[in-house]
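Q: Entry one of two.
A:
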Amino acid sequence: MKRLAGKVSVITGSGLGMGKAMALLFAEEGSAVVVADINQQAVEQVVSEITAKGQRAIGVVANVAIQEDIDKMISAAIKEFGSLDVLVNNAGIIDDFKTVGELEDELWDRIIAVNLAGPFKASRAAIRIMEKQKSGGVIVNNASVGGLFGARGGAAYVTSKHGLIGLTRNIAATYGLYGNIRANVIAPGGVETSIQNTIKAPSELGMKALNDTGFAPLGKPEQLAYVALFLASDESSFINGEVITADGGWTAR
């Protein structure tokens, strides 16, 4: 039996990279998927790949920094598929490794809006549906090893990922312990995705701090997708409020 048979999943940032790999894998494992991303062309491509195999998917162009877009993607799941069983908060952006002294308000606000406020608002919308369902639901947040240490990103990025881990644990300690909604975090290390291409003018000091952490193995998006699948499935039914580090051993040294 497929591991997500009959489930409905919303995956943010699923037009490319890890999110796309998750969307394709979740669909293969039986879930109907709402492909949500800011890039319309990428959304259409992923939906096309899924439906071409006879699997279920719809696309929603959404910026997780905008409340109306969050409402739109959550509503689309209910309208099209009738429920919402899994929310994967995968969308995220980086900050050129800017340190506190270099960081301008505009970049700080943008990073926090996408990486932390977005998952909060999406989780809030999802929880309001999941808590009314007998089957409850699952939230998987894609953070980073930057949420565990200080030098795996710039000040805004690291702060946002630490905050995302705290948010996840709060959900687990309330809706998980006293309800039927589980929440867990993936903390990836280096992954071969297009997000690397968004590094335009990296901070010299921020990069020095990163480089001093040693060589980071690069994983593939598909490897992270299988971690998300495990956390979304009933195979992880007794795992709640945990951080699963997936970094090829980078932080084990």
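Q: Entry two of two.
A:
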Amino acid sequence: MGRTPKTPRGNETLSALLGSGARAEVLRLFLTDPMRDYYQRQIESATGLPIRAVQRELERLAKIKLLYRRSEGNRTYYQVDTQFPLFHDLRSLFLRAGTPQDRIRGEAAVEPSVVLLIHNEKENRHLLVYSGRRAPEFSSKDVVPIDALTRDEFMLGLAGQDPRVDDFLRNGVDLLGRREDVIWRRIEAAGYDVPKAKGVA
């Protein structure tokens, strides 16, 4: 009796479809969080690819108009064009082929009320901090446990009133990487050093 061949998963599938593992890594970054722009060194850091491979893939993707670029000072920033004809299909493909963390990150990245998203890998739980009155609804919440706190609840927890906050900040990784928000200065001032998850710029 012959062995059943393994079905390729995640980036293996995407690499096979796209013909390049480097291209799959670069696209994954842009399609998971399509609202952000990135410069080359950020992409290098997030993907782990050599800078030459990053430059080559950015050129190819810009040439077909999936990415557009703009210059600011001596940096060139790239962002995915959400009006590209295949954008929604490609994004859906990447999120379906990705991990549960890719899916929750992808949903959180396009929700304006989300302030931060931290994954406690040890307990496989997520902390979602949001602004506004109601927590955003995610389709992946049934397979990805989420503790949702308002920004004010999180700040109280940071001051020692919620042990869950301490646990997430000590044992978690940042799934969004949006460190420009003032909330990250408060986190650092409280003595926490939360690393970014693999693949997050």
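A: Comment on entry two: Residues 11-88 form a domain with the Arc Repressor Mutant, subunit A fold (CATH 1.10.10.10). The radius of gyration is 18 Å.
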